[in-house]
Amino acid sequence: MMRKAPLVLAHTPMIPIQGLFETHLTVANLDRAMRFYEETLGLSRATLVPDRRVAFYWLGAHGQAMLGLWETGTSPQRLSLHTAFTVTLEDLLAAPARLRAAGIAPLDLAGNPVEEPVVLAWMPAASLYFHDPDGNLLEYITMLSDAPAPERGVVPWSEWRSDKMAE
Predict the structure, then answer these.
(1) Burial class (CB in 10 A: 0-12, 13-18, 19+), 164
(2) Is there a single domain that holds both residue 142 and residue 102?
């Protein structure tokens, strides 16, 4: 007779997770990716492991969180991943112009070019998307202190702010 595994309830985690420390993206050319993440995004390199073709970057303060970039080579099969970076609201609002100045298209959640961030009303969070040279979807995001409004879906920042001012 087989014993059933014990039921683990969602509200009683085995180990309470406090945050995300590390995430990884695959890149076709590590040197090109390193230039983008260092020179364009301004990330601070934590370490480079040349024989494994991987570079790690600190996100925020040293020891707070890391991003790993792993070279996969020129295989025609690509994996596009998504990573969101927490930024201040002030920097998020300046991001569309800064991205365009760097030759990067700022995008909305659907992948359409935008002039301003969008608000994911269910959270709510202001957000702006863009791609790295390997097609990975990157996001700048700022949580807002407003009440969630899931019925609003995704709205442009200016629309969200004008509606909040009218309340």
Answers:
(1) middle
(2) yes
Q: Is residue 46 part of a domain?
A: yes
Q: One digit per residue, pLDDT tens: the chain, 167 residues? A: 556 655 555 567 677 778 889 999 999 999 999 999 999 999 999 999 999 999 999 999 999 999 999 999 777 777 889 999 999 999 999 999 999 999 999 999 999 999 999 999 999 999 999 999 999 999 999 999 999 999 999 999 999 998 877 76
Domain enclosing residue 51, as ranges:
20-76
Contact 130, 106 (CB under 8 A): yes
Contact 106, 96 (CB under 8 A): yes
The Cβ of residue 45 has, within 10 Å, a number of other Cβ atoms equal to: 13
Residues 91 and 148 in one domain: yes
CA proximity to 83, closest of 25, 18, 143, 20: 25
Q: Residues near 38 by Cβ (< 8 Å), separated by ≥ 6? A: 45, 57
Same domain, 131 and 72: no
124: helix, strand or coil: coil
